[in-house]
Amino acid sequence: MKHFQARSSDTPWGLVCKVWFDVQLHMGRRANEVAAAGLKVSAFCPHGASGAARLLTCPTLQRACLSTSAARWAPAVTQPAPAFKGTAVHNGEFKEVSLSDFKGSWSFLTKIIAFSDKASEFHDINCEVVGVSVDSHFTHLAWTNTPRKAGGLGGIHIPLLADLTKQISRDYGVLLENPGIALRGLFIIDPNGVVKHMSVNDLPVGRSVEETLRLVRAFQFVETHGEVCPASWTPHSPTIKPTPEGSKDYFEKVN
């Protein structure tokens, strides 16, 4: 899991990793967790609603996703990103890294090599990238000192943060507790420490660096201009002003 910070003109955005959500699991084994969180079942799912379809309409559920970890809530888009702190390997040295280091800039968490190779492009849009792994910082140092052709990471251009206790992965809802591994997650965090985007993949499938760059640019555009970026938006393509007239103008342009 890596962490990236994207920046607008003077502030950062962040990306964080994966979330797996299982409604039926929540309704069954996690009923006690809901109660422990201070939520009555009737409040969590009004009017005795049952089943996935009705549960998804509950306001409380719309504000929070369930973690893959026992008794944990994953972060939700529009909500504050969980704080983290730990030892990272950066430029061949150990350094302490925390979420507060990226306050005022965009950031994100994700996997390693592909995003490291694009680190300069993220820096160009005022975005910082941080990788997170459940291995130790000593293991990370060994990885970075091993050439890629030999199965290592080689030289990377982003901090690689150790999550040996698995607390960061647990707090971000990407930890599979029984095997003790983290899914492929990506979280974008804005300059105020708020999650703007999150995605989680199963282990066999990675993510698109280009799509991540597009998302960061889109969130920065919305922050600056207050307009809506439609599907497949790219810089310099039409956007939608959030008014009836603005929407009409947009659809006249693209149709």
Automatic annotation (TrEMBL):
SUPFAM superfamilies: Thioredoxin-like. It catalyses: a hydroperoxide + [thioredoxin]-dithiol = an alcohol + [thioredoxin]-disulfide + H2O. Residues 246-255 have a biased composition (Basic and acidic residues). The keyword Disulfide bond applies. The keyword Oxidoreductase applies. Residues 232-255 are annotated as: Disordered. GO terms for cellular component: cytosol; mitochondrion. One of its GO terms (biological process) is cellular response to stress. Thiol-specific peroxidase that catalyzes the reduction of hydrogen peroxide and organic hydroperoxides to water and alcohols, respectively. Plays a role in cell protection against oxidative stress by detoxifying peroxides. Acts synergistically with MAP3K13 to regulate the activation of NF-kappa-B in the cytosol. Required for the maintenance of physical strength. PANTHER family: THIOREDOXIN PEROXIDASE, THIOREDOXIN-DEPENDENT PEROXIDE REDUCTASE, MITOCHONDRIAL. Belongs to the peroxiredoxin family. AhpC/Prx1 subfamily. Homodimer; disulfide-linked, upon oxidation. 6 homodimers assemble to form a ring-like dodecamer. Interacts with NEK6. Interacts with LRRK2. Interacts with MAP3K13. Interacts with RPS6KC1 (via PX domain). This is Thioredoxin-dependent peroxide reductase, mitochondrial. The lineage of its organism: Eukaryota, Metazoa, Chordata, Craniata, Vertebrata.
